[in-house]
Each structure stands twice: as structure tokens, then as C-alpha cells.
Design goal:
With 357 residues, this protein is α/β, with parallel strands linked by helices. The chain has 14 helices and 8 strands. The strands form 2 sheets. Strands 3-2-4-1-5-6 form a 6-stranded mixed β-sheet. Strand 7 and strand 8 form a beta hairpin.
């Protein structure tokens, strides 16, 4: 059995809304900084990597060089790992493409997997190319890390049945996402969907997400208060919780608060960003179900801290639930309110027990 890790290159200085295939773009300073942070995480957590391969395009080459240096390796260039060739569209904005090539634009939207842009290639061809290249690399290496591109990675994911062909243009694969692969008896399979280590989710990225989602200032203040109270709540629990993960989840849990069903919407946003553990915590931060015999989890701490903060004031569960009770207009609403209050009391009691151990 052989493990292979595909990695999308870091953020570039190319503008947003462009069709970029083989056109050269450089890593931004932010991209280089985040690659360096990831390189340290990779060396510590994927220590068995014996080779680094890269697409020869500059954005991948620079990413690979920073990572290979952390391993004491020299990256190997491989043209089979290049991004999809987008032909005559390469470097154009999608607005320009829609205006200059309206019929072709419509045809590609109707069948993106098989459509070939003039002088380019299809995603189906990219998938076969990358699949064959990965198998060839794996034949000579025990564990390799491969730096490539979003289109190449997502085409391979569809080839490996992680998604349907018509989803190719909507699949997420954020910069510096890792796709773990496994080869057994000559068969290539995906171990999981692409993810990003939480070391990349620093305060700068959190602020970027606030701006991207247009999160209102009063909601940001609420999330900051929840984060502060969450850390205060677990102080003295002897390290059984992931404090930094809880803090980051708290700073993002209401990212999309203005959207209907915002817990689910926000969780999906964080999954698309590649932060799966945090997304899972946020997905349940409104749920009232709990197991009274279970141990507390990071998600429970986020849930509890959120219930102890009224807007941006830390008030405790009695005041918070007294205020929310007034909004209950039916017997059913009162029942759900009581269940949430009981869950909050249970978490508080379990926290007190943990601190006394």
C-alpha cells in the first residue's frame, strides 16, 4: 500500500474572476507565508514523505520549493501535473469569455466534463493524465507529496468517484488543500475529501472570511465575546479540550448569521474552505440534543459559550435564557427552549466536575 498526497498550490497574485490555466502567475506574499506555515505542519504530521513532485508552472513550483526545503528534498518537475489547458480562454475574465464566446460559454456550462475549449483540453483528459501520472510516481516512491492545481485535483476526484461529472465547476478545493490518496494492488483511491490543516486558519484568514461573507460588525463582536467566554469556561480543565480549535470555531460560528438556517450555511462554507473539524462543530451549535452520560466535546463548549453571551455581553445562562424565553410564542417553542436550557445546565455541571478532578 502506498500513500500519496496531492496539494493545491498557494494563493497567487492573479486577480479574481479570471480563467487561469497554463498562464504563469506568481505566489502572493501571503501565499508564500502560508506555504511556510504549512511546510512546518507537513514535516511534523506527514514525516514519511520521501519525495516532492510538482507541476512546472511557477505557482506550483514555488509552493513545492518551500515545502521540499522543510523536508531537505529537491522537488521533481513533472509536466503531467500541469493545470488544465484552457486554450484561447486562458487569462481572460469570465465576463470577457461570456461576451466574446457566448455560444462556447453556454456549451461548456451544459457539459463541462467533456467540453474542449479551442486549443485546450477536456477535464476528462486531465483526469486520465493526472491519474496515470500519480500511479507512475507511486510505482517508484513509498510516500510522495505532489503539488498541482485545482482543476487537476478536482478532475481526479471525479475520476475516483468523489463527485459527479457535472459538478466539476462547483467543486471546492481551496489553496493549500490536501487530498490524501492511497494505492493498493495498483488501484488508486481517495482517502478523504480535500482538507486544510487548521494551522492555516490564523486570525488574518478569519478576518478575510468575515470580509468575504460580509459579516456585520455587531455579529463579529458577538463571536469575539463567545470566543473569550469559551476559553474562560475551559480554564482549569487540564487540557482535555482543543482550546485553539474552540476559539477559531467561536470566531466563525455566526459567519453567515443573516442567512436562513445559518448554522448549516456557515458549516458548509467552512467545509468548502477545507476546515472540516471546525465546520462539524459549527453545524451543531444550535442543536438541543445531548447524551447526559457522555463526555463533553469541543462542540459542547462552543454551544455553551454561545448560550452565555447576549449580543456581545457575557451574561450567563439564566439571564440569556430568561431573555430568549420571552420570544417563545407557542407551547412547542417553550418545550424546545426548556430542552436547550437543560442542556446548558448539564454542560455547566460537567465543566465544574472537570475542574474539580
Amino acid at each position: 500500500m502506498t500513500d500519496i498526497y496531492l496539494l493545491r498550490h498557494a494563493e497567487t497574485d492573479a486577480g479574481k474572476g479570471l480563467c487561469i490555466g497554463r498562464r504563469e502567475t506568481r505566489l502572493s506574499e501571503k501565499g508564500k507565508k502560508r506555504t511556510a506555515a504549512l511546510a512546518g505542519w507537513l514535516k511534523e504530521n506527514l514525516s514519511d514523505v520521501t519525495a516532492v513532485y510538482t507541476s512546472p508552472l511557477q505557482r506550483a513550483e514555488t509552493t513545492a520549493g518551500i515545502i521540499a526545503q522543510a523536508y531537505g528534498l529537491t522537488p521533481v518537475y513533472d509536466e503531467g501535473l500541469m493545470e488544465i489547458d484552457t486554450g484561447v480562454w486562458d487569462g481572460l475574465s469570465f465576463a470577457e469569455i461570456k461576451e466574446q464566446y457566448p455560444e462556447e460559454y453556454e456549451k461548456r456550462g451544459a457539459d463541462p466534463w467533456h467540453y474542449r475549449i479551442e486549443n485546450g483540453e477536456t477535464f476528462e483528459e486531465v483526469a486520465r493524465r493526472v491519474n496515470d501520472d500519480v500511479l507512475r510516481i507511486a510505482a517508484g516512491e513509498k510516500t510522495a507529496l505532489i503539488v498541482t492545481h485545482k482543476g487537476a485535483i478536482n478532475a481526479l476526484r471525479i475520476h475516483l468517484h468523489q463527485a459527479e461529472e457535472n459538478e466539476i465547476l462547483n467543486l471546492a478545493c481551496a489553496n493549500l488543500s490536501i487530498l490524501p490518496l492511497r494505492i493498493r494492488d495498483g488501484i488508486l483511491s481517495a482517502v478523504s475529501e480535500p482538507y486544510r490543516p487548521e494551522v492555516l486558519l490564523d486570525d488574518e484568514m478569519i478576518r478575510e472570511l468575515w470580509r468575504k461573507h460580509q459579516t456585520p460588525e455587531h455579529v463579529i463582536r458577538h463571536m469575539a465575546a463567545v470566543a473569550a467566554y469559551a476559553l474562560q469556561s475551559i480554564a482549569g480543565t487540564k487540557g482535555i479540550f482543543h482550546a485553539e480549535r474552540i476559539r477559531k470555531a467561536a470566531l466563525l460560528h455566526d459567519l453567515d448569521r443573516l442567512q436562513p438556517h445559518h448554522a448549516a450555511v456557515c458549516a458548509e462554507s467552512l467545509r468548502r474552505e477545507g476546515f472540516w473539524e471546525i465546520a462539524a462543530m459549527i453545524a451543531v451549535h444550535h442543536r438541543e440534543e445531548y447524551d447526559p452520560d457522555a463526555d463533553l466535546t469541543d462542540a459542547d463548549i462552543l454551544w455553551y459559550a454561545d448560550k452565555c453571551v447576549l449580543e456581545d455581553r457575557i451574561v450567563g445562562i439564566e439571564e440569556r435564557f430568561a431573555a430568549s424565553r420571552k420570544k417563545c410564542k407557542s407551547e412547542e417553542a417553550l418545550i424546545h427552549h426548556q430542552r436547550r436550557y437543560e442542556k446548558a445546565v448539564w454542560i455547566r455541571h460537567k465543566l465544574e466536575e472537570e475542574k474539580q478532578r
